[in-house]
Amino acid sequence: MLVTPPHRTFLFLVALGVALVCVSPIHAADQNLTNYYYRLDESKAPVYSRTHKHLAHANPKAPKGGYLRFPLLEKVPTLHPFPLDGEDPISTVAIDLVTDSLMRSPKDDPLVQYGLVAESVATPKDISWVLFTIRRDAKWHDGTNITARDVVFSFTLLKERGSSYGYRYSDYYQDVLRAEAIADNVIKFYFTKPHVKELPWIVGEMPLFSEHFWKSRAQTTKLLSPSDFGGVSGPYRIAQFDRASHASITLERVEEYWGKNHFLNRGRYNFTQITLKFYDTMKDSLEDFRMQGHDFRNETITHNWITLSTSPEARVGMVSLEELPSSKSEGMQGYIFNLHNPILQDKTLREAIILAFDFEFLNATVFHGKYKRTQSFFSNSIEFDTSHPPSREEQNLLKSLPEPIPKELLSFVYKAPRTDGSGDNTRNLMDAARLLNRSKYSYREGQLYTPDNQPIRLEILIRAGRGLDYPTLIFAQNLERLGIMADISALPLGEFTAKKATRSFDLAAIVIGQSASPGVEQRELWGSRYAYAKEDGRKNPIGINDKNVDALIERVATAQSRTELRTAVKALDRTLLWGNYVVPHWHSGTERIAYWNKFNHVPSRCRCGNDLFSWWEDSEKLQALDRWRQMRINDYK
């Protein structure tokens, strides 16, 4: 399942359910296989039935109107979903708001998809294909019907040219054999492997594009004018694209949107205008927020959160802050090792470097105790928790791997090194020195040398303005005590991305996001197929080349049940942790949001995160905010 980095950002998920199931005559005999939803976990019933009128966190009486502005820490994109020249495609956030898909999944039911453009979904028992019946009232913005031919076109074009959050659809859909228009409103996808639960899901979430509109335009290099962007069917359309300082994309709500009365949409998409503003650093974004340059932010830097919570605007209630408990997987944030550097292929050296990182000191002095140490590539996930010894099923899976495994892996539970938080990391550094000494490393005049007498000097790559400068400086100072000289490169987004893409670093601070249902995307994260892709470090950025990891990835990607998936994900997690491929950072287990107090929303009753697009603008709060703003202007004068 594709996901947004934790990073990061919002998951813009929606869900649909109402409507009588319409079964194509072609498969009328398979009615027991046809439904209004598709689920990944057969043990759990869908949250929503056909009789639900709206999502639990949506207000069907919410007023329409107003505007929302929020930040994205992304490179300014083109306005093209299929760029030809290596440019980044249009922001995935914008795509989520202007396009529809056959199926969608709501935040409070993340393992179930409900029909959106699709009225029904059908699969045989072996899941060798999936068939969708398209709603007759589903229409493009120009009023023409969405057809099965459009879905085939979208699939073909995305597989050839599309990408999302760095993932190429060509890899994502490699187990989807072909798409076929069975009838004008019936589309069938055939799969290369049977019994794989995820395959109907990944084609169901595919963004849809009009063949009539995009057949010729897809061949153009760039789209710079909003009028050039059409052939979509979502709740918003692109109204403006500004490439100036703090570039932005402005979206306008489509009044005649065909899906506005579906239950997943009722009470959602309330803002008349949404503006996505692009920033290079968190500092720029925070400063603009405090100047009311945008209205809402997810805050991931503790210092910024403390600054906001003690600000004059927060003290008088003009800025609201909420910490929402979350059980969503937060993936892995940390300094990844670049195994293309021969020195870093030594696991012992990597283990010694990990011992130099003092999380407890940082948490006590910088993070105000708000973080937990990350000890999993699927951190914060209850379902994929590996804090206990492997189950018998996991052990059997590990024993079946193509290469021999160390027997310790059969009982392995990863425990990140700990300190007392005083800032004195001597004990762990002594352990690191003993490891290095046993492996024939040598220390002379403050410099560590490899067994073949190479001095060790490493570059640590970080994004500028992301709150990592001081933690990385402390880390580098501890490395220096081991005799490892470390140069810190704090780069803006464009330069950081370029160096990462060409693997021109030794360690790099990144976030590797995970979804609620790991699947085929694991191939691009760790698969040896991409280990030597020198010019595309977005795939397998560590450079892992391990047959056992490859085998576990395939078990994850082709899991035939939720139980099988859990076993495979946990075994993959333990194997990756055993490899010491990352210096793990931290995660919070919460979603921190700050916003100017002009909004209203239904409080979420699940630990599933915030659905910003179910919010609405409150006229009374807006008037109070305007009065306060005017008072500040008068005081300044």
Textual characterization of the structure:
With 637 residues, this protein is of the alpha+beta class. The protein has 18 helices and 28 strands. The longest helix is centred in the last third of the chain and has 18 residues, at 619-636. It is globular and about 75 Å long.
Could you name the ranges where pLDDT drops below 50 across 5 or more consecutive residues? Answer: 3-32
What global shape is seen?
globular
Number of strands: 28
Task: Determine the number of helices (DSSP H or I, runs of at least 4 residues).
Answer: 18
* Strand residue content: 15-25%
Strand arrangement in the largest pleated sheet? 1-6-7-11-10
Q: What's the pLDDT, averaged over the residues?
A: 90
What is the rounded distance between the termini?
A: 54 Å
Global Rg: 25 Å
Could you describe the largest sheet, including whether it forms a barrel? 5 strands, antiparallel
The assigned structural class equals alpha+beta
